[in-house]
Please model this.
Amino acid sequence: MNSVPAHHAQNTVMRILIADDAPETRRSMQLILSLAPDVEVVAAARNGREAVEMAGTHQPDIALVDVNMPEMSGLEAIRRMRARRPELVCIIVSAEKDAITLKQAVEVGVAAYLIKPFTAEQVLSILNKSRRMALANRAKAAASPPAQLSRREMLEKTASDLVQARRTDDAAVKVFEMLAAMPDCPPRWLTHLTIVYALRNDWNKLKRLATYLERRQT
Model:
């Protein structure tokens, strides 16, 4: 039997983002997805804002997003995620299937609708259909590379949202630190990271950053 080439195996692995404020739903979804071949859950968000940030950082192929979440609704999160990456296949998860939510879901580009409580068979069936869409979208994106945003551009978009939301938590720090570690990082992100460290009283990191900035200037 011929083995599957390594590059082919990597190209068929589906990167999945789960977004749900209920820990038990996230665990259940992860357990079900572990039954599917060639699937990797790359991130699990607790609210809509985290989902947008994680989508920018981890660049999933498919996102399963709960409708009702704190800080930002699932539909708004999907709208923002797909504004940055139109190729992202989004599945909405909801306990209800009312006409208004359905209309809004179509408007933001939702590909499928999963009703709670769901079974493993329902999740895997929707995943199979979404996989085909994601592979087709991946092929289209590969055919037009200039339209794709670089990892740096994605991080900068995420960082802009964090600044606007005045976020200084661990997730925000991680994004700013990833930008700061990149060559020729724009000064605005280094300045903002300095402010965040000061607000968090993280003096050791602030000292190291100050040393790094001094070296950049010489």
